[in-house]
Amino acid sequence: MRTKRFVDIAVESILKNKMRSLLTMLGIIIGVGAVMMMVAVGQGAKSQIRASIDNLGTNLIVVTPGSSSQGGVSRGAGSFNRLTVQDAEAIKRESLLLSGVSPVIMAPTQAIGGQGNWRTVVLGVSTDYPMIRDWTVSSGRLFDSEDQSSMRKVAVIGATVAKNLFPDQDPVGQDLRLRDVPFQIIGVLQAKGQTANGNDQDDVVLAPFTTVQTRLAGHQFIGQILASTALSSDIPAAEDEVRSIMREQHKLAPYDGDDFTVRNQTDIMDAEASTTDVMTLLLAAIAGISLLVGGIGIMNIMLVSVTERTREIGIRMAIGARGSDVLSQFLVESIVLSVIGGALGVGLGFAGAKTIAGLTGWSTAIAPAMVALAIGFSAAVGIFFGFYPARKAAQLNPIEALRYE
Amino acid sequence: MDTRDLVIQASGLKKIYGTGGSEVHALRGVDLRVARGEMVAIMGASGSGKSTLMNILGCLDQPTEGVYMLDGVRVDGLDRDELADIRNREIGFVFQGFNLLARTTALDNVELPLLYDRSGRKLDTKAMARATLERVGLGDRMDHQPSELSGGQQQRVAIARALITNPAIILADEPTGNLDTHTSVEVLALFQELNRQGATILLVTHEPSIAAYAPRVVEMRDGLVVRDHATQELHDATSDLQDLEPLEVAS
Ligand SMILES: Nc1ncnc2c1ncn2[C@@H]1O[C@H](COP(=O)(O)OP(=O)(O)OP(=O)(O)O)[C@@H](O)[C@H]1O
Ligand SMILES: [Mg+2]
């Protein structure tokens, strides 16, 4: 009953000064809005990353050069590329659990053909690669083992390359010059769209690794080996298998560390997710600071309000308000202010998340728990920053307060 | 005088403001007894300590020295919260400057003291506020804010606010100080009427013409009571008002 009275008084006094109340709440509105938006977008980005990693193919295992135990430094100037086609072939030959293995040689290339030229990346891969990535052609065909063993200059191009070089023509059967080497286009890949980071997965040219190695790359080393298992339950065992084959290939002594890294899809996902976590943390810090500023704004305006209403406080005390009544009144007022601000901030966050969702096509979601947390946090800000002004009001001397002009 | 029916029983009240060389002895040993149902005017020159005495009697302030019994309860030495509760239950204040809450209707202003009631009884505060406003003749102004009321009407709202808790005593410090003669007499007529209905009233005034409406006058000088006497020619505000009425119509 008493609390309801205080809430009534608080709402009334807030409504009497609408503009000022709104400006006071602005800090909280923006702070909470930012938090809501960032969490919503963060969630959206995370699920987007998950989707695009799922897009990599299923049950994926990736071997990259360099040791992971050396951390980020491992791929620095000191280490040299230690993955070879022979490694890939050994894994393919000796593994019992893998359903497909492919070396991946990346060669950024200027592609010339049809309408002009286009900067893209040529991936030298084996015939297993499309199966591992779950890629198919929309027209033409993929290259086969015959093309691979004969080092034929054939290429399968991504939808983006097709659209840019052959906008109104079927690319299949056309010529394509990659680093001045003429290739024949035998197929066009099914379009796959963008990854979460905005990478265009269709901006790619696939060619047999044998051809790419001899004609384009000019060296024996490869960027990574991609493999997959038929069953996801086989992944851990398959990873061990790959590791021991690689150690044997590289003739590592038992006390030597791995000079390569074997990761599965979940590891990659976690790494990606941790990047977004860092981003989330940063944004959370910014949001925290704006909430702090918002709280100080509330404290400031409550101090002004206490001074302005000194006489009112005196009157209330004269007719029997205890210090605690006055304290409650002002505390409730600052809580109501900050909670209304928090609610408006949630609304702003919703609108912002919707807008971003509309612009990026990401799915953004605001969980009810988030809303509750945001409102609760606003209330806490109200209590924390409202307490000092409220206590100041409660400790006023009634006689002096009554005489205040 | 029957001691059991004394609302105010103060003896040796002293109030010293400040410390050291700049001490101000606002009260220097005041004795005062007010029985239930009395209407007393306190007079005295500016600075004689009238407001200081009212503040102490109203439990807004504590005496530096002396004993003060309000309605049979010793109140000097109580803490802030206890004093607040006593103000709420036992005392009704009427101020010179009205001291109503701005942008708050007459009804809500009058209801206010009941909202701080801690007795736990269930009260229909709105109905009580309405009845009290009617008692002071403002039944038709309940939803007006102070800025929409005349000075006299504002003071009547303030009187209703003082009355609503049915206090042991009403303390009015220069209640007519901001009012013209006619309105002052109107307010005094209300006080006399309430006094006839049993209210105990203590009012501070500079003007002998206002003091003439109180049956008993206490005069102060330099922090002491120098004279305490019955009014020789007690005026009746209601009949004075009838004499003044034609004037009002003419203007
Ligand atoms: N808070 C205070 N601090 C210091 N001195 C004070 C304080 N309040 C009152 N005084 C002093 O105490 C004395 C009595 O003041 P008080 O207000 O009681 O006089 P008063 O009789 O009400 O005068 P007036 O008729 O002008 O209202 C004065 O000398 C005044 O200056
Ligand atoms: Mg005074």
Which protein chains make the most extensive interface, counting residues with beta carbons within 8 Å of the other chain's beta carbons?
Answer: A-B, 19 and 25 residues
The SSE order of chain B reads EEEHEEHEHHHEHEHEEH
Helix content bin of chain B: 25-40%
Shape of chain A: elongated
C-alpha-based Rg of chain A, rounded? 32 Å
User: Care to count the β-strands of chain B?
Assistant: 10
Give the CATH architecture of chain B.
Answer: 3-Layer(aba) Sandwich
Low-confidence stretches of chain A: 70-79
Tell me about the largest β-sheet of chain A. Answer: 6 strands, mixed, barrel
In the predicted model, the low-confidence regions of chain B spanning at least 5 consecutive residues are none
The structural class of chain B is: alpha/beta
Question: What small molecules are bound in this structure?
Answer: adenosine-5'-triphosphate, magnesium ion
User: What is the straight-line distance between the termini of chain A?
Assistant: 33 Å
Task: State the total count of DSSP E strands of chain A.
Answer: 10
The CATH homologous superfamily of chain B is named P-loop containing nucleotide triphosphate hydrolases
Distance between the termini of chain B: 47 Å
Your description of this structure?
The complex is a heterodimer of chains A (405) and B (251). By secondary structure, chain A is α+β, with helices and mostly antiparallel strands. Chain A has two domains: 2-52 and 271-403, no CATH class; 83-258, no CATH class. Chain A has 13 helices and ten strands. In chain A, strands 2-3-8-5-7-6 form a six-stranded mixed barrel. The relative contact order of chain A is 0.19. Residues 70-79 of chain A have low confidence and may be disordered. Chain B is an alpha/beta fold and 251 residues long. Chain B has one domain: P-loop containing nucleotide triphosphate hydrolases (Rossmann fold, 3-Layer(aba) Sandwich). Chain B contains eight helices and ten strands. In chain B, the strands form two sheets. In chain B, strands 6-7-8-3-9-10 form a six-stranded mixed beta sheet. Chain B has a four-stranded antiparallel beta sheet with strand order 2-1-4-5, covered by helices on one side. Chain B is globular and about 50 Å long. The N and C termini of chain B lie far apart (47 Å). Bound molecules: adenosine-5'-triphosphate (ATP) and magnesium ion (MG). Residues 50-51, 173 of chain B line the site of magnesium ion (MG).
